[in-house]
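User: I'm writing a tutorial on reading structure tokens. Could you give me a worked example: one chain, its sequence, then its tokens, then a sentence or two explaining what the tokens reveal?
Assistant: Sure. Here is the example chain.
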Amino acid sequence: MAKLYPPVGFHFKVVFSGIGDNDIDSRFQSVSGLGVELQTESVTEGGENRYEHVLPVRTQSSTLVLKRGLVKDSKLLTQWCNEAFQSLNIQPVDMTISLLNENHEPLMTWNIKHAWPRKWSHSDLDAEQSALAIETFELQYHYFTLS
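And here are its predicted structure tokens:
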């Protein structure tokens, strides 16, 4: 009987649908923000002073944060962000983020719906440090599904 171990979190792939299939645009060093929260509303009941009712209202997705070393050959992804920030031409896309096994096969896939660039930043340039230049993309999205 094979022993099952939890998968490692460092072997993953990001794919943007609708931007292009440039391989450099699927390589990131970290992905965070795969989360959803249920927003609530408090309602007090007349005559009941011991507690208040907390009711679910809607779901809210976290901001998806993608980080990678700065690359100059990423024309499709940077063009998508440039269009959003320079001319407010927001083109939402769907994405998939796949956690991979040792054979590069997906163990779990997050299907991100309606993602668009919210913030694009670069790390500080400092001659006193020998650190990589890091590019950070913050994306807003509607929701995700698991497969």
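What the tokens reveal: Residues 5 and 88 are 45 Å apart (CA to CA). The two ends are 25 Å apart (CA to CA).
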